[in-house]
Design the sequence.
């Protein structure tokens, strides 16, 4: 569904259900060129917002504390009172919304009754961060509607807290950041410790970015994500006993890691080594992009995937297959799984005009092998969360 059609749909549903003229907010999904599972290690990432959105329509109602939220794509509506905001069933869409409302309450802000309709064209469970886009859309909308005065950075941090406290995923900041701060035609080199970021122009002249969705649904809430985070923390604990200055894996070098190798179990060592190496690859990738060295950038992507597959162990056979096929294709410079893992998309850097032939060749084999079809997305880099239409209009 195009974003225009989506917007019209959300708008007319709002009118039909709740009657008043809403504020319209759009919040994009994201890709990540490189830097996977580095964000919660205070490291670097290189994401960008894409032209796939959650659009939400939001307006105050007449009540002091009654709220209604309609998820248009699921045809599911909830009603709740602001005096009783609690997490809903695990895995439900409601926690993204309720989590944001709860975090705003924790800031001491007194909201009043409101209604929301939202819908999206970011494929769910595809590693394109539809959940962060939803959280940001709600935070941004409420901030505007109730004149809360939060900055974009405060809103993205609030969205992240909603995910920690209501969804139960101890995620890093990359997704909420990219969706909130995205910049058209750029990816953003983010230092996840200081939250400083630098836009990096993406203009691959004769190459483009191709996303292939394995259509394997990942479930980030699965303990695997939180477990990886714990492994990293336990690695840092061991490193600190010898190098007290190390506060997170971002501060550790491969040499320091090998000095404490004997004190770590082999799995923790492997996970920590991946993070240290991936963090270095982000810096190398930025240099490669600036020098327009696409072969180098591509090889960093392949290395990243190998690390995610063998060291960090967050890939799956479908993603490995897609990357392997990309590796065998001379029109593709680099490919890797993207996002939290266990499903979702691969990101590929491919020669312009070569996508169709590659997709045709891989699609048949993939379908035969895994009994499901992959999906293909062409995306453009876009601006972050913003108002589409204010109430005054
Ligand atoms: C998910 C999380 C992010 C990040 C990625 C892996 O998308 O939400 O914070 O950790 O996984 O890079």
Sequence:
């Amino acid at each position: 569904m195009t974003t225009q059609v989506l917007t019209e749909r959300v708008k007319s549903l709002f009118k039909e259900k709740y009657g008043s003229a809403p504020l319209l907010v759009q919040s994009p999904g994201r890709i990540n060129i490189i830097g996977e599972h580095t964000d919660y290690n205070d490291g670097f990432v290189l994401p960008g917002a894409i032209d796939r959105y959650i659009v939400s329509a939001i307006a105050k109602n007449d009540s002091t504390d009654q709220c209604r939220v309609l998820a248009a794509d699921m045809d599911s509506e909830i009603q709740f009172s602001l005096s009783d905001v609690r997490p809903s069933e695990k895995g439900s869409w409601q926690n993204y919304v309720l989590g944001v409302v709860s975090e705003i309450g924790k800031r001491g802000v007194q909201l009043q009754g409101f209604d929301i309709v939202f819908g999206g064209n970011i494929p769910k469970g595809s590693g394109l961060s539809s959940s962060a886009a939803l959280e940001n859309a709600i935070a941004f909308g409420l901030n505007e509607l109730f004149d809360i005065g939060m900055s974009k950075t405060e809103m993205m941090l609030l969205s992240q807290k909603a995910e920690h406290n209501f969804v139960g995923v101890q995620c890093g900041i990359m997704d909420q950041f990219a969706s909130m701060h995205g910049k058209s035609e750029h990816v953003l080199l983010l230092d996840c410790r200081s939250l400083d970021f630098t836009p990096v122009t993406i203009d691959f002249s004769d190459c483009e970015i191709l996303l292939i969705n394995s259509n394997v649904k990942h479930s980030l809430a699965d303990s695997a994500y939180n477990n990886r985070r714990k492994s990293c923390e336990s690695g840092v604990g061991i490193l600190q006993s010898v190098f007290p200055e190390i506060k997170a894996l971002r501060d550790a070098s491969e040499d320091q890691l090998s000095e404490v190798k004997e004190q770590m179990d082999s799995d923790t060592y492997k996970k920590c080594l991946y993070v240290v190496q991936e963090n270095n690859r982000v810096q190398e990738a930025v240099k490669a992009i600036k020098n327009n060295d696409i072969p180098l950038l591509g090889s960093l992507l392949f290395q990243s995937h190998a690390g995610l597959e063998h060291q960090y162990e967050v890939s799956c056979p479908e993603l490995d297959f897609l990357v392997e096929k990309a590796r065998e294709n001379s029109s593709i410079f680099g490919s890797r799984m993207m996002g939290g893992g266990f499903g979702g998309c691969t990101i590929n850097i491919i020669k312009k005009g070569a996508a169709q032939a590659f997709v045709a060749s891989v699609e048949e084999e993939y379908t035969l092998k895994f009994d499901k079809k992959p999906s293909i997305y062409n995306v453009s880099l876009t601006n972050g969360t913003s108002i589409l239409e204010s109430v005054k209009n």
